Amino acid sequence: MTMLLSHQVETSWKKLPPKAGRALRSTADQFLDIAKSIANNTPLDRNTVNASCNPLVDCARDHQHKHVLIGLRNHHNFTYPHGLAGFQINELGRMSAIADVYAGLTVERPYKRAFDPDTAFSIMKQMGGALDQHLLRLFREAIHD
Questions:
Q1: Which range marks the domain in which residue 106 is found?
Q2: Cα angle at 94 between 30 and 66, to 5 degrees?
Q3: Burial 88-110 (b: 16+ CB within 10 A, else e)
């Protein structure tokens, strides 16, 4: 596994049904690869980015979403690559997080309805320091123009 996870997280994921554990590990590894590409300023392969959540979607289709959610709750020790947080993360990374959360909230998925933009922004504002609130305001202004 290329991902740096705490021992506690790795242990908890091993206790999940195999498909759910593999989905979480695979998705985390793919997200780390995407983060490395962003950090190295290398182009992202669109198919790789699109496929990064497929293992999780497959688990949801197989009604294993509860196991995945348990695994995500145990993921609280994960930090951005190299332990970066807040303004240590470059602006592109912080902006990408905002766009990713917005898309996740406003796009309908097989397992959830889409939120309208105002509700999505309300939820994102409540996330506080998890998202750069200044960039979130700028993003909202750009979306509403």
A1: 85-145
A2: 50
A3: ebeeebbbbbbeebbeebeeeee
Among 24-28, 50-54, 126-130, where is mean pLDDT lowest? 50-54
Best CA proximity match to 84, nearest among 132, 45, 123: 132
**Would you give the DSSP letter of residue 142?**
H
Encode pLDDT of 79-133 as tens digits: 455 566 777 777 777 888 888 889 889 988 888 899 999 999 999 999 888 888 9
Domain count, the chain: 2
Contact 99, 27 (CB under 8 A): no
The burial class, CB within 10 Å (0-12 / 13-18 / 19+), for 114 is middle
Same-domain check for residues 6 and 57: yes
Evaluate if pTM is beyond 0.85: no
Return d(Cα 77, Cα 79) in angstroms, integer. Answer: 6
